[in-house]
Amino acid sequence: MRDAGRAGDAADTAGGAGGAGGVADASAVRRRPGRRPGSADTRGQILAAARQIFAEKGFDRATVRGIARQAGVDPALVHHYFTSKAGMFVAVMDLPLNPEEVVPVLIDGPREEVGERIVRFVLTLTADAEARQPLLAMIRTAMTNDQVAAMVREFFTEELLDRAARGLDIPRIRMEAAFSQMFGLIVMRHVVLLDPLASAGVEELVALFAPTMQRYLGGDPDGD
After folding, report:
1. Which residue numbers in the chain have pLDDT < 70?
2. What is the SS3 assignment for 35?
3. Per residue in 187-198, pLDDT tens?
4. Residue 14: strand, helix, or coil
5. Quick count: other Cβ atoms within 10 Å of Cβ 12?
């Protein structure tokens, strides 16, 4: 298992391990004053800066410009490598998915099947150990580290819950209820290893959980 250190890196940097933010060497030749052009290590420099800024300010208050300034690069380079602030967070936390890309796919399609789509997606994703381990590392770290918990909460609120609730045109509390259902299932299945949940097949659990998810997300499978 990739250890929880990846998820905990953001918290570890908050104590001021700071200079890893990637300030350019004063003697380096620059095309623009105060900005370093792209190089083989630019992505790593941006990630180091993002890790520090997220740890210090959380997800909500971190900005692309602030991360670029810490890394000593032009903001355009940040967008080139990561597209968005959410993309940087996904890379810092080593997450297997970006909500910006996944949410539109999950909420598109027949509304009466959205619960089933989400349950199957979550179960299929977490069935893959390589994809599952970073998520579990983040969950474990957030449960014991208030700073990481706040950062993760801001990220999921802004990039997943709000985005999905708007797309489905439902109150966010319904989306949070659905999220909590999936969160609890992942924890029981892959952290607590509670049987028979832990050993049940994906399709068995889809059949069990999809109707409840459908009700959370606006209408049961029968359309009532």
Report:
1. 1-40, 219-224
2. strand
3. 999 999 999 999
4. coil
5. 14
Task: Give the CA-trace dihedral at 15, 18, 20, 23, to 10 degrees.
Answer: 170
Give the whole-angstrom CA distance, residue 85 versus residue 71: 14
Cα(127)–Cα(111) distance, integer angstroms: 25
Give the phi and the psi of residue 54 in degrees, each rounded to 5: -60, -40
Estimate to the nearest angstrom the gap between the alpha carbon of 59 and the chain centroid: 10
CB atoms within 10 A of CB 129: 11
Q: Note whether 90 and 54 are within 8 A (CB).
A: no
* CA dist 18 → 11, 24, 48, 56, 99 (Å): 12, 14, 9, 10, 28
Question: CB 3: neighbour CB atoms within 10 A?
Answer: 10
53: nearest Cα among 65, 36, 35: 65
Handedness of CA 195, 131, 133, 179 (dihedral sign): negative
Residue with tokens 């890893």: 20
